[in-house]
Amino acid sequence: MASLIACPHCGRRPKEEFTVKGAALARPEPQAGADAWFDHVYLRDNPRGPYQEFWHHTSGCRRWLVVTRDTATHEVEEARDAALWNRETAR
Amino acid sequence: MTSYRLSQGGLIDRARPLSFSFDGKPMSGFAGDSLASALLANGQRLMGRSFKYHRPRGVLTAGAAEPNALMTIGKGGRTEPNTRATLQELYDGLTARSQNRWPSLDFDIGALNGLLSPFLSAGFYYKTFMWPAAFWEKLYEPFIRKAAGLGEAAKESDPDSFEKCWAHCDLLVIGAGATGLAAALTAGRAGARVILVDEQAELGGSLLSETATIGGVPAAQFAREATAELEALPNVRTLARTTAFGRYDGNVFGAVERVQKHVATPQVGRPVERLWRIVAGRALLATGAEERPLVFGGNDIPGVMMAGAARSYLNRTAVAPARQMAIFTTNDSGYALARDLEACGVALTAIIDSRPEGAAPGLYKGQARILTDALVRDAHGGKSLSAITIARQGRTETLRLDGLAVSGGFSPVIHLACHRGDKPVWSDAQGAFLAEDRKGLALAGAAAGLSGLAACYEAGARKAVALLDQLGIAATAGSVPTVEGDIVAPATKPLWSIPGIRGKAFIDFQNDVHRADLALAVREGYAHVELAKRYTTNGMATDQGKLSNVNAIGLLAEARGVSPAEVGTTTFRPFYTPVSFGALAGSSHGKHFQPVRQSPLHGWAKKNGARFVETGLWYRSAWFPRTGETTWRESVDREVRTVREAAGLCDVSMLGKIEITGKDAALFLDRVYCNGFANLPVGKARYGLMLREDGFIYDDGTTSRLAEDRFFMTTTTAYAAGVLNHLEFCAQALWPELDVRLASVTDQWAQMAIAGPLARTILQEIVDEDISNEAFPFLGARAVSLFNGALKGRLFRISFSGELAYELAVPAGYGESVADALMEIGKPKGLCAYGVEALSVLRIEKGHVTHNEINGTVVPADLGFGRMVSAKKADFIGKHMLAREGLTAGNRHQLVGVVPLDPAASFRTGAHILAKGAAATLENSLGHVSSSCYSPHVGSTIGLALVRAGSSRHGEEVMIWNGLRGEYTPGRLCDPVFIDPENAKLKI
Ligand SMILES: [Zn+2]
Question: Which one of B658, B705, B725, B811 is at 20 to 30 Å from A47 when CA atoms are compared?
Answer without folding.
Answer: B725
